[in-house]
C-alpha cells in the first residue's frame, strides 16, 4: 500500500485502485471520472516512496504523452517540496527513482522500451489505453520484472471502446486485470458545463463517454442488455440468480449450429470470422423468467461429440440433461443429434429474425421494478462477449459475426415466449418432416403446466 502524504483526496473508487497491488489493473468507465488523475497520483507516490524505481508513462504517440501525462504530473501532482527534476522526457526523484515518458507508435518505439533503465520496469502506466495495440500491451507486460518494491504494476487507463477491442476481450472478459470503474457523477470536481456536454452526447459516443459502455461503433443490436458483473454488481442481465433451481421449471438446450473458425488463446475468444456451434443450458421458471445457466462453444467438432461433452459438463455440475431443445432449423442433423442424446422434445428455431430479435430485446430490458425476464449466469463468458458485440452493419442489416450465442438464445426465448407463432414459422423439423404428435402434445402439456404453476405463485 502506498503512503498518501500529499493533499490529494481520492474519490471512493480511486481509493480502491490506490490500495490495489495487482500485477495488472484497468481503469475504465465514463469520461470525467478521474482515471488519469489517480493513475498519475499513484505513479508519483510509487516513485517517491520506493527508491531506485523505474517507472514508465506511455501514450501511443510520444508528443501526446508530453502534452498530457507529463504536464499533469509536473503541474498538478508533483509539489515543489518533492524536489523532482523534470527533464525533456523524464522526471528524476531525489531517491533515485525515475519516470520515463514515452510513445509506442511503431515496432521501433516498442523495442526502445527494452532499453529503458536497468531493463525492467516497476510501474508502467498506459494512458488512453484504447489507442494502443495488443502488441504494445504484451511488450509492456514483458518489462514488468521489477522487484524492489515487493510488487510491480501495469496500469491501463482508458475510456471504453468497442467490445472487440483487446482491452475488453482480454482484461475485462478474460479477467487478466483487476478492473476499477469510474463514473462522471462520482467526481464532484467536474464543472457543470462539462456535465452538460456529456449529457448531450448521442449515439455510440454517448454510450461510451457518458455511460461508460463498451459498445460497437455501428450500433449494438441488443442495446437493452446490461452486464455489470465485472464492476462488482450482481444486477442487470448477468447475475448469479441465473442458476439451476430444482423444481422451479423446465430445462432447455438452445442450440445454434456452426463448425468453422479458430479460438484465439491470447484473446481468449473466437476470432471474428469464426462460426462456432453453440449449446446453451437454460431453465424457464414458473414465473416466466428464463435463466441461461451454462454454455459450450466449439469449432471443428462433430455434433454428437460436442453434445456429449456438454452433457458431461452439466452432469459434473449436478445439472440434469434438459428435456426440451430448440435448434438452428437450417441444421436438421443438429436436432436429430439432440434427440439421440436424450432430449425428449426438440423443435427447430424460428427463421423470423426481426421478430425473434425484438422479443429477446424486450425481455432483456428492465421493467419499472428493474426486473428482467431473461438473465444469464456470469460463467457464460462467450455469450456475454457476443451480446455486446453483435451489431448492425452500415446498411442497417445484421452483421454475420459474433451472432452465434445470441442466435441460440433468441431461438429459445422466442419459442418459449410465443410457441404458437414461433412454431408456425417453422418449415424444418428434426427429421425434415412435421413434428410428431407426441412432441406437440408434450409441448402443450409443458406450456399449460408452467401457466398453472405460475398462477399458483410457485
- Tally of discrete structural domains: 3
CATH fold call of the largest domain: Nucleotidyltransferase, domain 5
Which strand order spans the largest sheet, edge to edge or round the barrel? 3-4-5-2-6-7-1-8
What structural class should be given to the helix and strand makeup? Answer: alpha/beta
What is the name of the CATH class of the largest domain? Alpha Beta
The outline comes out as: elongated
The radius of gyration over CA amounts to 26 Å
Assign a percent range to the helix content.
25-40%
Indicate the mean pLDDT: 88
Task: Quickly list its features.
six-stranded mixed β-sheet; Rossmann fold; Nucleotidyltransferase, domain 5; 458 residues; 16 helices; alpha/beta
Task: Please characterize this protein's 3D structure.
The structure is a single chain. The protein is of the alpha/beta class. It folds into three domains: 12-204, P-loop containing nucleotide triphosphate hydrolases (Rossmann fold); 229-425, Nucleotidyltransferase, domain 5; 430-457. Helices cover 34% and strands 17% of the residues. The protein contains 16 helices and 16 strands. Strands 3-4-5-2-6-7-1-8 form an eight-stranded mixed β-sheet, sandwiched between helices. A six-stranded mixed β-sheet has the order 15-14-9-12-13-16, with helices on both faces. The chain has a two-stranded antiparallel sheet with strand order 10-11. Strand 14 (324-327), helix 11 (332-340) and strand 15 (345-348) form a beta-alpha-beta unit. Helix 12 (353-364) packs across helix 14. It starts with 11 loop residues before the first helix and ends with a helix.
Amino acid at each position: 500500500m502506498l503512503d498518501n502524504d500529499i493533499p490529494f483526496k481520492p474519490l471512493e473508487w480511486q481509493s480502491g485502485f490506490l490500495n490495489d497491488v495487482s500485477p495488472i489493473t484497468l481503469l475504465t468507465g465514463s469520461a470525467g471520472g478521474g482515471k488519469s488523475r489517480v493513475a498519475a497520483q499513484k505513479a508519483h507516490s510509487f516513485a517517491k516512496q520506493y527508491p531506485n524505481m523505474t517507472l514508465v508513462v506511455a501514450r501511443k504517440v510520444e508528443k501526446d504523452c508530453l502534452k498530457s501525462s507529463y504536464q499533469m504530473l509536473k503541474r498538478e501532482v508533483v509539489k515543489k517540496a518533492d524536489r523532482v527534476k523534470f527533464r525533456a522526457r523524464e522526471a528524476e526523484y531525489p531517491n533515485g527513482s525515475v519516470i520515463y515518458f514515452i510513445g509506442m507508435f511503431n515496432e521501433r518505439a516498442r523495442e526502445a522500451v527494452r532499453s529503458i533503465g536497468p531493463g525492467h520496469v516497476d510501474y508502467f502506466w498506459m494512458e488512453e489505453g484504447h489507442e494502443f495495440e495488443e502488441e504494445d500491451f504484451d511488450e509492456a507486460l514483458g518489462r514488468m520484472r521489477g522487484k524492489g518494491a515487493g510488487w510491480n504494476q501495469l496500469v491501463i487507463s482508458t475510456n471504453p471502446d468497442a467490445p472487440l477491442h483487446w482491452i475488453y476481450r482480454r482484461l475485462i472478459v478474460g479477467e487478466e486485470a483487476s478492473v476499477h470503474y469510474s463514473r462522471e457523477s462520482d467526481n464532484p470536481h467536474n464543472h457543470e458545463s462539462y456535465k452538460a456536454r456529456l449529457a448531450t452526447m448521442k449515439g455510440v459516443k454517448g454510450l461510451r463517454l457518458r455511460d461508460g459502455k463498451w459498445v460497437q461503433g455501428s450500433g449494438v443490436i441488443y442495446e437493452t442488455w446490461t452486464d455489470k458483473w465485472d464492476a462488482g454488481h450482481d444486477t442487470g442481465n448477468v447475475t448469479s440468480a441465473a442458476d439451476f433451481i430444482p423444481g422451479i421449471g423446465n430445462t432447455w438446450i438452445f442450440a445454434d449450429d456452426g463448425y468453422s473458425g479458430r479460438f484465439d488463446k491470447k484473446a481468449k475468444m473466437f476470432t471474428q470470422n469464426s462460426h462456432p456451434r453453440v449449446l446453451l443450458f437454460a431453465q424457464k421458471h414458473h414465473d416466466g423468467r428464463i435463466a441461461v445457466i451454462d454454455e459450450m462453444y466449439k469449432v471443428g467438432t462433430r455434433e454428437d461429440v460436442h453434445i456429449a461433452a456438454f452433457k458431461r459438463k452439466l452432469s459434473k455440475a449436478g445439472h440434469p440433461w434438459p428435456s426440451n431443445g430448440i435448434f438452428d432449423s437450417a441444421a436438421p442433423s443438429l436436432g436429430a443429434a439432440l434427440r439421440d442424446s436424450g432430449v425428449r422434445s426438440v423443435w427447430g428455431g424460428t427463421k423470423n429474425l426481426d421478430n425473434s430479435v425484438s422479443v429477446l430485446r424486450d425481455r432483456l430490458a428492465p421493467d419499472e421494478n428493474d426486473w428482467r425476464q431473461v438473465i444469464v449466469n456470469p460463467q457464460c463468458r462467450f455469450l456475454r462477449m457476443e451480446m455486446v458485440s453483435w451489431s448492425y452493419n452500415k446498411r442497417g442489416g445484421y452483421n454475420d459475426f459474433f451472432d452465434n450465442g445470441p442466435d441460440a438464445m433468441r431461438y429459445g426465448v422466442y419459442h418459449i415466449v410465443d410457441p404458437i407463432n414461433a412454431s408456425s414459422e417453422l418449415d424444418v423439423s428434426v427429421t425434415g418432416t412435421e413434428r410428431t404428435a407426441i412432441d406437440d402434445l408434450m409441448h402443450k402439456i409443458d406450456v399449460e403446466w408452467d401457466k398453472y404453476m405460475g398462477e399458483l405463485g410457485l
